[in-house]
Fold this sequence. Notes:
By secondary structure, this protein is α/β, with parallel strands linked by helices. The chain folds into 3 domains: 6-44, no CATH class; 53-166 and 302-330, Response regulator (Rossmann fold, 3-Layer(aba) Sandwich), CATH 3.40.50.2300; 169-300, Rossmann fold (3-Layer(aba) Sandwich). The protein is 43% helix and 18% strand. Helix 1 (6-13) crosses helix 2 (17-25), helix 1 packs across helix 3 and helix 5 (74-90) packs parallel to helix 13 (303-318). The longest helix has 17 residues, at 74-90. The two termini are 34 Å apart.
Amino acid sequence: MSKITIKDIARAAGVSRGTVDRVINGRGNVKAEKRDRILQIADQIGYEKNLIASTLAINKTHQIAVVLPAGVDSYWKQIRLGVQAAMRNIGQYGVEITYFDFDYEVGASYENQLMEALNITPAAILTAPLFKMETIRFARIVEHNNIPFFTINTEQEIAGITSYVGQNSKDAGKLAGSILTLRQKALSEILVITIGSDSTNAQHTADKITGLQQYLNANSIHAKIKELYIEDKQKLNESVEDLLTTKSNIKSIWFTNSQAYTFFKIYQKSIKPDVIVLGFDIVTENVQLLESGKLSALFNQNPSEQSFRAMMQIYDLLINKVQPPRSYYLPIDIVLKENLAAYIKRDESLFQNDHKILH
């Protein structure tokens, strides 16, 4: 029997060879229904993806350093699942990974692990650059040494970064403004809470607040943004006590990261029922808050898809010599109590089949 080719799959599926190539190699945007049909046909007719000839010829191993926070919550676990799903697709091409774990709340830990990653002489580095100044210093090093530097979760406009995959944080701020003003016609104060580093060293937080302010300005909404940074969780109660009294003008609260559940775990007092509360990320604890009504909505950043697509970009650069875009923005999903079940079902089945990560 002759070998099955991409051309055979294209003919059977009634699509172009380019479309089949994008699906097989995880590149570009193909509608889910068409993608699933192509993959089903490929399985049915026995297509097997060959190792790339250049990789076979030189038998080269590509070491990738993956620098991520140590287990904080299920958001970061989903990031790792995305990396693992990518590796099931590209591991056969000589791609290997080594994890370097840092403390989510400590910039020095992040920087130390980045430096440790250099010890394996990586072909590329993937990280979530949560700390701006530390990232600036490290980016100079990788740029000098011509090491591709890929980022997710937090976009940093810094020389030396090869590509970013994730949400546009300023757009997230604008989206928050749109939701808050739809639900609250007479906004006077918006409380923006960040549990962790303040915006001077956390670029994604600064960008989110900038986007929110831009939305308010563009729509002539004269609401005051009150920023609250809580680095010491033990002092959380005293930090918010005066802000959330019955006499407070705050009608909207926005958590800028996945740590909303930390706030509600410590702050046991009730928040007024007319206050809208927005959070980030479908982590187990936040899901419970959404189901109970303590959170009004969650922004889903698709963490697994961020890391999966970033890893596929690294593969394309190292193996196929395809230069990635400087920024690859993923959509920001709005998750409500009413559509939560669909997202949970999707995430539960996400890794049963490697291809389903490309939703």
